[in-house]
Amino acid sequence: MIPPEKSAEFVANMERVLDVYKRPYNRANPVICMDETPKQLIAEGREQQKMKSGRETRIDYEYIRQGVVNVFMANEPLRGKRYTQVTEFKTMKEWALFIDMIATKYYPKADKITLVMDNLKHMWRQRSTKRSSLKKPRNYGTDWNLYTLQNMVAG
């Protein structure tokens, strides 16, 4: 829920993001939307019993936890392109490597990439409080515009 004192700011930020989506396609400045989600890995606890005459297949819903992974996904809506990467952790380093991969592998000729995310605060906080061990991005010619609902950063 949006606190009442923040609703005008939220609406203004949302309108800025929606304006980005209205832009016509530009190969030199693609609009990329990016998000991430944790996913639990599970294994079957018991083997299912096959169907027999007069009886449906029986499935036991018991499962065994196999850990958690992070899934990064980026898409370019105007071209219908989607890129995913599964990582063991969700840290600034993994996020930066995913963003670097987008720039160097899929958009090496772009002058600027406009990145739309739901929230950049947690990544930005990690970046500002912890020195990153990343090398400089390989794609030196690409500039980035970042748009988020929570803290608009346009560069």
Account of the 3D structure:
- The chain is an alpha/beta fold.
- The chain has a domain at 4-31 and 74-148.
- It has 3 helices and 5 strands; from the N terminus they run αβββαβαβ.
- The protein has helices spanning 7-22, 92-106, 121-129; strands at 31-44, 63-76, 81-87, 112-117, 143-148.
- Strands 3-2-1-4-5 form a 5-stranded mixed sheet, with helices on both faces.
- Helix 3 (121-129) links the parallel strand 4 and strand 5 (143-148).
- It is elongated, with a radius of gyration of 21 Å.
- The two termini are 29 Å apart.
- 12% of the residues are buried.
- Mean pLDDT is 78; it is low at 127-141 and 151-155.
Basic shape: elongated
- SS summary, helix count: 3
- Rounded to an integer, what's the Rg over CA atoms? 21 Å
Report the portion of residues in β strands. Answer: 25-35%
Q: Portion of residues in helices?
A: 25-40%
- Sheet with most strands: strand arrangement: 3-2-1-4-5
Structural class by secondary-structure content: alpha/beta
* Spans where pLDDT lies below 50 across 5 or more residues: 127-141, 151-155
Mean pLDDT: 78
Fill in the keyword field for this structure.
155 residues; five-stranded mixed sheet; 3 helices; disordered C terminus
